[in-house]
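retry 2 of 3: previous attempt timed out while embedding fe (ii) ion. Reduced batch size to 1 and resubmitted. Inputs unchanged:
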Amino acid sequence: MNDTLTSKEIETNVDFLPLNGTDYVEFYVGNAKQAAHFYKTAFGFQSCAYAGPETGVKDRASYVLTQNKLRFVFTTPLQPEGEIAEHVKKHGDGVKVLALWVDDARKAWEETTKRGAKSFMEPRVEKDEQGEVVRAGIHTYGETVHIFVERSNYNGPFLPGYETWTSEYNPSDAGLLYVDHCVGNVGWNEMNQWVKFYEDVMGFKNILSFDDKDISTEYSALMSKVMSNGNGRIKFPINEPAEGKKKSQVEEYLDFYKSQGVQHVAIATNNIIETVKDLKSRGVEFLTVPQSYYDTVLDRVGTIDEDLKDLAPLGILIDHDDEGYLLQIFTKPVEDRPTLFYEIIQRKGAKSFGKGNFKALFEALEREQDRRGNL
Ligand code: FE2
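retry 2 succeeded.
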């Protein structure tokens, strides 16, 4: 056998969309000034950059916040016209952009659009005295977009046009490190078409699947497939609702977000006990599980480094896979609409997503859904 690859094989083995990581997450919100204050106060983000009327941007204001490798942007419209105002009117506050850090934004846009992605933004060079950034974007599920960001020739705080934002109000950080994964909710029977989108258009692989049988039919059901890029730095689970005895939490999301969209952003920490204690003291609200969860959890997951006495009062969940275990907890939605929420996750070897916690978690979610009258 000839052990050299044919040119076709080489072509299919090369990652046509190399991604360095998440560059930023941009939210379209009703009041960016207050959202920025909330994320500083409640989640420990730091002031980084600003663009708005004072910097020559007339139609919007954007606040950039960072915490370790996390970069969140909160953008609000200044007038009732335009796509940002329409987005906020329809969806409430939510994620508009999942931006991906690349070495070559033009190539990322060309490779994805030639495979069928719908263009959101043709490659554009943005410049100021700090250098230049190349950005380009494509549409994904709902009104969510991916923007490719090439910033190797840029030294400014965020993007050209943004000024450094220094504030006299600087709450301490909460140990939040980077985006572990971002989950999208799509409609009935739409999961596989988005799995195919990430496979065909972005070269991702389906690394894990959960079907409705993983979840008891007593509880609201969903199906999920986890899509990952080649180096594993970008993981996008895709959920669709499934039939259960009760209304699926994904359906409730779709009823209020009014389209497909980002359901949760999972953020990594190296010390979930300290991070969650800190976040709770700052007013972040988490889902709780019955204390009976802790009676049997170690029978399921085996030995862990942490003491259950520290995890149980905080409601931190534990799951495991062949490679180790993970600790995770979910916030309540951070808007009045039951839409976007956060997961805080500490991985101790495990590369999975907490399937073993679905049942306990769904019971907790259903209690909240029931209180809203949406079950
Ligand atoms: Fe998650």
